[in-house]
Specification:
The complex is a heterodimer of chains A (about 80) and B (about 250). Chain A is an all-alpha fold and about 80 residues long. Chain A has three helices and no strands. Chain A has one domain. Helix content of chain A is about 80%, strand content about 0%. With about 250 residues, chain B is of the alpha+beta class. In chain B, about 45% of the residues lie in helices and about 20% in strands. An eight-stranded antiparallel β-sheet of chain B has the order 3-4-2-1-7-8-6-5. Classes of the chains: A mainly alpha (about 80), B alpha+beta (about 250). Chains A and B meet through α1, α2 and α3 of A and α2 and α5 of B.
């Protein structure tokens, strides 16, 4: 099995586990848990993956961070009762 | 048995990715299950983008790996040199690693330089010095980890070997340790076991002289990281496990 296949399989299992735990309750929590999974996978696999895969994973992380910032902003606005 | 083309990883990963994305589109459009839809979209896009595949078919790359080492073997066998090779790291005038095969077991090891291939320095310093068959594989691993191995020690050697095993998939696992001044290297084969066995069927001298490209990459990594000349003292195969006992000379 290619390392990239192992990576995809492990993140699929992580996504399934998070989905099983979170269910349909909180989309925000689900997105954050997925982002944490990608960050951990990126850090643990950094030695073993090709630069092209590392770059693609970084794109996922950047999208996840933007989503995370949006979630935090939404929460802040919610707490301040602006929205 | 040849794999059906749809079962090859380059196609199967894309099929799986498209299936997950289709499921996510269905869940987004026709149901209220947002999280399962997000999970499916994530898995689908991740599988499509991340799972890469070898640009050369595995059978072709294995045949390429075989051809180089068999050429070495035929030449070395015909010269009737010793069956035990010595892995020499870059030292002095030698800027790249070499596999040195002395003319006989008791012969002294000369100071090698880049120009020496057929070594004939007299006083017993006779042998063949060739670039290790696994040197390009090791160079690739070093480029990926981002630093050289020369004299960096056992841990750096292990990190590089880890990349050869996990990152490049050359072996399932390895063990590299010092044992009372000598060095023990154990390699557990994975997908390349058949390749290794087919070479051993030709002759086990391949394993003890230079090693096949896979074993040679590990042996050269060991020699470079310890910055020591490592002579193959014993070689053993137990199923998937390859055992090298190396002496620092």
């Amino acid at each position: 099995m290619l390392f990239s296949q192992k990576l995809a399989l492990s993140l699929t299992l992580w996504a399934s586990l998070v989905l099983a735990l979170v269910g349909s309750h909180s989309t925000e929590l689900f997105v954050i848990m997925i982002l944490i999974g990608i960050l951990i996978a990126r850090e643990l696999s950094s030695v073993y993956i090709r630069p092209s895969i590392a770059y693609k994973m970084d794109v996922f992380i950047q999208v996840g961070i933007i989503a995370f910032i949006a979630i935090v902003m939404r929460r802040i606005l919610d707490i301040l009762e602006i929205i | 048995m040849a794999k059906h083309s749809l079962l090859r990883p380059e196609y199967s990963s894309k099929i799986i990715g498209v299936i997950f994305i289709s499921i996510s589109v269905y869940l987004f459009l026709f149901t209220d299950h947002i999280n399962p839809a997000l999970a499916s979209a994530f898995i689908g896009i991740f599988t499509l983008l991340i799972v890469n595949f070898p640009t050369v078919e595995e059978d072709v790359s294995i045949a390429s790996l075989k051809s180089g080492v068999l050429t070495y073997h035929v030449i070395l066998d015909d010269l009737e040199v010793s069956s035990m090779g010595i892995h020499v790291p870059p030292q002095g005038d030698l800027t790249g690693s070499r596999a040195y095969i002395p003319a006989s077991e008791s012969i002294e090891i000369p100071d090698l330089s880049d120009e020496m291939t057929i070594v004939s320095l007299g006083r017993g310093k006779v042998g063949i010095a060739v670039p290790p068959p696994g040197y390009p594989l090791l160079e690739e691993a070093k480029e990926r980890i981002g630093y050289g191995l020369e004299d960096k020690g056992l841990e750096s050697g292990r990190e590089c070997m880890g990349h050869l095993s996990e990152g490049m998939g050359l072996a399932r696992s390895f063990s590299f340790r010092r044992d009372e001044g000598n060095v023990k290297l154990r390699i557990t084969h994975g997908r390349y076991q058949d390749y290794c066995e087919s070479l051993r069927e030709v002759s086990t001298d391949i394993c003890t002289r230079t090693g096949c490209p896979i074993c040679s990459a590990y042996l050269t990594a060991a020699s470079e990281s310890l910055s020591s000349r490592l002579k193959v003292m014993d070689f053993e195969v137990e199923g998937k496990h390859i055992k090298y006992d190396l002496e620092v000379v």
